[in-house]
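This section describes the prediction task in plain terms. A model, or a person checking by hand, is given the sequence of a single protein chain and must write out its three-dimensional structure as a string of tokens. No templates, partner chains or ligands are provided. The sample shown here is typical of the held-out split.
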Amino acid sequence: MALTDLAAGSGRLKTDLAAGVERRRERVLALSRHLHAHPEVSFEETGSAEAITELLAWGGFHVERGTGGLPTAFTATAGTGELTVALCVEYDALPEVGHACGHNLIAGASLAAALALAPHVDELGITLKAIGTPAEEHGGGKALLLEAGAFDGVGLALMVHPVQDGVTYNPAGTSAQAVGRFRAVFSGTAAHAAAAPHLGVNAADAAVLSQVAVGLLRQQIPGDHRVALFVAEGGTATNVIPERAVVDFECRAFTLPEYEALLARVRRCFEGAALATGAELTIEATEPLYEPLVQDEELAAHWTAAMRAFGRDTSPAAGLSGGSTDMGNISQVIPSLHPWLSIPGADVPIHSHGFAALADTPEAYDVMFEAALALAWTVADATTDPQQKKRFVKAAYHRNPVQGAPAT
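The expected answer:
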């Protein structure tokens, strides 16, 4: 069914937005397919960023590239209203499996929404920004952009995320876990493995002991906590006692206090392994902390109403589920919406070759455009309600609030 048919009876503005998404369908579809066919990993999304900014410039946006000192980030702006609305655009892919998280669909939904909203920015009284946020999978692009000031002045931020079939389109009560990623380096002493093994300090043994300790710890952590790790380095030759071993690991939990407590326990597993073997240990963060996701209730209600009008499942969510996003960092300081986009027929987990294939199907693109319209309608509903608009204007984020004013 065409989006204009779905919008029948919804009023002049929403009908215009539906027609606006339809007019840009072919260009946005071509872009989304291009991203899928040419996946680029975190901080290397050069071609993706170029293709997206070309489309936004065509759509009348003023485009600035290299936002926040990140070469593949960008900010595209339309309008000069008192309320700044940000649509986040993701476009990085995963190593080896490509767009197995559907970031080509995330980009397409945000872009179609932005292009449809652009002619209405003066009517809505908004400054509309499409912010290109690289490195969501690894690297925390949004966290870096937040620190660099890319979201200063933003009063609400939105995006969508594809998931498997059967997940409700109602984002109320859903979240995502905090995640911190680290590198543990064990330093030992090399020695001949046959002639003088007793003179060595085996760093690889420390890596093994840390894995065993974390494995045993899993029995005694809450069911919604996660610890994952792998040995990145563990020796170079069988006849040399390894003097260096590297273990990359991450910890996840739904609240920051729970995350900090879990991380402390995991660190002790590594410290115990170092103590047992005599190796030296250093642990350093490899990425910014991804904070828990907070869904704004009013934005969630607008989105859910749109999806209900489209005939999608908007039953209450069953509860929290695993996964993390750097959109969590944005949501901690700016009213935000990060709903889930259920792809019909997608019966395989995200981050798999199967899901990557499903992210490039007609069914996926159909719901992508529905999501684009729902995003546009959410912005329209939120900015035409005087009380809500006032709240979002007041919530505008600033890294360095004026002394004496309440921090956002």
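For orientation: The radius of gyration is 23 Å.
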